[in-house]
């Protein structure tokens, strides 16, 4: 689950797309139904926690790995200097569905991010590009 608390508490869940529903150009076990959209050329701070067991929110291409621990709040920050898709997943052995927790960040220019955040969070970026 994700929450953009600085932007009117926009919240959504992100789930892996099942293999039988993935598009021809999709990545099996990595693509999600709702991507995290973040502005490029901006310092990003994220807060991470967990509800059940220890998880590890990891995006290798960005050099980001932060543990989410139940009852604790952890934070990290990073800077994305180019547009694109960045794939990651939980990298903690957190249970039976550990391998089914992918993360996808879509880095976009700031003006696209502002339009996205002001629209419905579930709308596609392709709708307003």
UniProtKB/TrEMBL annotation:
It catalyses: 4 Fe(II)-[cytochrome c] + O2 + 8 H(+)(in) = 4 Fe(III)-[cytochrome c] + 2 H2O + 4 H(+)(out). Residues 1-119 form the Cytochrome oxidase subunit II copper A binding domain. Its cofactor is Cu cation. GO terms for cellular component: mitochondrial inner membrane. Its EC number is 7.1.1.9. The keyword Ribosomal protein does not apply. It is an enzyme of class 7 (translocase). It is a multi-pass membrane protein. Keywords: Copper, Electron transport, Magnesium, Membrane, Metal-binding, Mitochondrion, Mitochondrion inner membrane, Respiratory chain, Translocase, Transmembrane, Transmembrane helix, Transport. It is found in: Mitochondrion inner membrane. GO terms for molecular function: copper ion binding; cytochrome-c oxidase activity. GO terms for biological process: ATP synthesis coupled electron transport. Its main location: mitochondrion. SUPFAM superfamilies: Cupredoxins. Belongs to the cytochrome c oxidase subunit 2 family. Component of the cytochrome c oxidase (complex IV, CIV), a multisubunit enzyme composed of a catalytic core of 3 subunits and several supernumerary subunits. The complex exists as a monomer or a dimer and forms supercomplexes (SCs) in the inner mitochondrial membrane with ubiquinol-cytochrome c oxidoreductase (cytochrome b-c1 complex, complex III, CIII). This is Cytochrome c oxidase subunit 2. The lineage of its organism: Eukaryota, Metazoa, Ecdysozoa, Arthropoda, Hexapoda.
